[in-house]
Design brief:
Elements (H helix, E strand, L loop, with lengths): L8 H11 L8 E6 L3 E6 L3 E6 L5 H21 L8 E5 L11 E5 L4 E2 L12 H11 L31 H12 L8 E3 L8 E4 L5 E5 L6 E3 L2 H4 L1 H5 L2 H13 L6 H19 L9 H14 L1
Antiparallel strand pairs: 1-2, 2-3, 3-5, 4-5, 6-8, 7-10, 8-9
Helix pairs in contact: 2-3, 3-7, 4-8, 8-9
């Protein structure tokens, strides 16, 4: 079995003809090509979410299972924000030599937040705050949560940021490592709420239309998710997001925010690490690094 696949419109259409023939004649086009998955838009209302490499294949199943529990809760807190809840499920196809599960989800009109002005994001920062406050709740007993060794764990268990850790960046990282650890019950985590996974509908004012890609969903320290505030917003946006979280009952201590700045460094380094393969992520990494350093 190959470790990765070239996902084409032809393969997507063949999978639909085999498993969901009533959708097979919809117009198809590649809408996004990420590290782990390819999104193929199907008509005006739907999209196929197709893993492109073996290591990501289980993440579609993790997303599908977790959203069964999370979608009702998040739908009450942020009813205008769409989630990638599957409307159809796909299975591996021996005949087409496609070895992994895949999903059909509803399309969310808009653009990735990475392509929008940072200052304009403050308009929808409260919606993201309400989303995070609703998400970051202890996992009910008896609910199985995907294990993710790269999210929600102690920062000491992570590879240091792929950045120059001298000067101010090094001080931020050392402070984050020295901060008291998270000792509460593990809370649900999106796992990867960076601005490329936030879909924005244009305004004015812009609004948060969807939060996508729950493949890294897990449970643990909320600081892991909260690092996105530096990747996504300027100071005004961070303040608006935090205020909305507090109004919704999610008030985290100073140690959590110190660890969150460390997570922001981790993710900024990841977003900056592959400029040739993922150039659209570079501005988010650059902004995140600058925001952490200026906020330090």
């Amino acid at each position: 079995m190959r470790a990765d696949l070239d996902i084409t419109v032809g393969l997507a259409r063949a999978l639909l003809r085999e498993q969901h023939p009533d959708l097979a004649d919809l117009p198809l086009r590649i809408a996004a090509n990420g590290w782990d998955n390819v999104m193929v838009r199907a008509g005006d209302e739907l999209a196929l979410r197709l893993p492109r490499r073996a290591v990501a294949a289980p993440l579609v199943l993790h997303e599908r299972t977790a959203l069964t529990h999370l979608a009702p809760l998040l739908g009450v807190a942020v009813p205008t924000v769409r989630l990638p809840v599957p409307v159809r499920s796909g299975v591996p196809s021996a005949g087409l030599r496609y070895p992994w599960h895949w999903s059909v989800v509803r399309w969310a009109d808009g653009a990735a937040a990475t392509s929008t002005p940072v200052a304009a994001r403050t308009a929808w920062a409260p919606d993201l705050g309400r989303f995070l406050a609703a998400l970051h709740r202890p996992v009910p007993g008896g609910v199985s949560v995907p294990v993710n060794p790269y999210r929600g764990v102690a920062l000491a268990d992570r590879t240091p940021p792929l950045l120059d850790l001298t000067g101010r960046a090094g001080a931020v990282w050392r402070d984050a490592l020295a901060a008291p650890p998270f000792t509460g019950p593990p809370v649900w985590l999106h796992g990867d709420p960076h601005p490329a996974n936030l879909v924005v509908a244009p305004g004015p004012p812009d609004r948060l239309a969807a939060v996508v890609d729950f493949g890294d969903v897990t449970a643990g320290d909320p600081a892991s998710d909260l690092g996105t505030l530096w990747l996504t917003f300027d100071a005004a946006g961070r303040a608006a997001c935090r205020a909305a979280m507090a109004d919704a009952g999610a008030v985290w201590d100073d140690a959590t925010w110190t660890r969150a700045r460390g997570w922001a460094l981790v993710f900024a380094g990841v977003l900056l690490a592959h400029p040739g393969e993922h150039p659209a992520l570079v501005p988010a990494g650059e902004h995140g690094l600058a925001a952490v350093l200026s906020d330090a």
